[in-house]
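Protocol step 4 of 6: record predicted structures for both targets in the notebook before any analysis. Target 1:
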Amino acid sequence: MTKRLTEIKDSLDGQLGRRLMLKANSGRRKTIERSGFLAETYPSVFVIQLDQEEYAFQRVSYSYADVLTETVELTFLDEQADGTAWSSH
């Protein structure tokens, strides 16, 4: 599992600064969808800078395990075609 987490981190390292859509399961059948861009990656977590005009929080962070367990889904947007360029699953 550690190797898989490293692969997720390496993939996200190459996506820094890219716009994305975030879909996060927050429990009890509640799903949060937000937009922003991948701001930073750290050894255990990554940080997303949210679009400020839409949300009260400016930044959120998640662990790579959240992506592995599909608690968090990231869809990177292709700025030229407005389509999906990369997805976490």
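Target 2:
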Amino acid sequence: MAAYETSRTAPFGAITTYRVVQFVGTIFAAVSEWNDARVTRAALEKLSDRELDDIGLCRGDIYRIGTKG
């Protein structure tokens, strides 16, 4: 019974191309996450203090929405 080696090295530049595409995807995800947080904060800032209290937030909590840490 004959055995064949089926693994081959990646073509020239394939790994670099993959890493560039992955980097662009990471940047896109970060921008999308930032924009979602920005839209959410803008919507919360339009609410009255009473409405914020109803959902368990205060004005000082709005800034922390969407920030890491």
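Step 5 preliminary note on target 2. The helical segments are 14-45, 49-54, 59-64. Residues 17 and 23 are 10 Å apart (CA to CA).
Proceed to step 6 after PI sign-off.
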